Amino acid sequence: MSERIVNPTRAQALFQEISRWVAGGETSYARQMGTFPLVIARSEGPFLYDEDGQRYIDYCCGYGVNLFGHNPPWLVETVFQTIRTMGPHFAFPHRLYAEVGERIAAFFPSIEQIRFANSGTEAVMAAVRLARALTGRPGLVKFEGAYHGWADPVCVGWGPSDPEARAPESAGVLPEAVAHVWVCPFNDLEAVQACMEAHGREIAAILVEPVLGSGGLLTPVPGFLQGLRALADRWGALLIFDEVLTGFRVAPGGAQALYGVRPDLTVLGKILGGGFALAAFGGPRELMRPVAEGRVVHGGTYTGSPTVLAAARAVLDRLQEEGATLYAALAERTERLAQGIESAMRAAGLVGHVRRIASMLLPVFGTAGSEGVRTYRELAALQDAPRYRRFCELLVRHGIFAHRFPLGRWFLSAAHTGEIVGESLERIARACMDLAREAE
After folding, report:
1. Confidence label for 176 from pLDDT (cuts 50, 70 and 90)
2. 142 is a catalytic site residue
3. Which of 146, 299, 320, 432 has its Cα between 20 and 30 A from that of 155?
């Protein structure tokens, strides 16, 4: 990515200039996962436009943030009006605190009080800190394949062979930072039970993504989330749902509404901010008391600014207005897109299938199905990662952008109309044919 390109396009030349000043040419570790960079100039609806004027139908949607598409006029105007009257930031309480908090609680009955944060990573860490303070215990149970941000205490997965090895997932994460974290297989309730039997009196919380987003859209088997709830209750631990991805995505009330399990603490983000840097964590008033009283420290210069909360209020009001109609339309278009991708695979002679839930999907190459797959490791073994990455690069050539992480996910937005889905399938079919020809 840092090598000089002969006769670069405008976007390539700009990326080289960006890379002079910004480490890696970006401010996240996952945005440029291909052989060439994209530098985006503007966005609108389901589209991204790069610095060369090329248009891409976007199925990344800001990593799932933009449920209503890019740059919706009603959202932009709401934010502009708020800035005109309140300014972008002044670091004091304002009426939008209550207005957004009340709306969140209406969607999530498990939440009586909320605290605002700037990112999902920050909100997760605040919820973990709160759980440790409430229980007086250091331990945390998390699940292989789950993503809870990049902070040290959750940046850990399984070692090569030993679940107790706790291999940090980044250089610079000290072993002692993850010494009190146990990693279990998702959907393996017996493993969690065994972990709790061995360490339950040390465990402050069970932290779980109810649907593994970066774990291949792995959904919970019947009884798994209910079992986690029971184990947390038995051992006096808290159950934390990380719904940064699933909140307002799989259902208006998140995965806890979809699966009928109430956590103690909930973490929200992505869709909540409508494209602005906003996350939140919350729960019953009694559990939030240590935060309210300042015994558990949480803060930040920019938390709860008028700008981001104006966006959140607009998003939540739109969700309340459109409700079931919006989610039904998203599910129908997602199903159509998934079935069309599978048809394109078959027509090109490619072996593959598409995993999907709500308005998220993931093409999988190398196997015709993943029924019966329960754990992250099982699912990861099915995906032909090099072929998937190449597929995403070919899609860019045909005017479609999808995240190149092999177990990531595609997102649909309200701006992905039936017409856009139809156009996408034509382009995807051509990319599948190109991929098949390369394998000949």
Report:
1. confident
2. no
3. 299
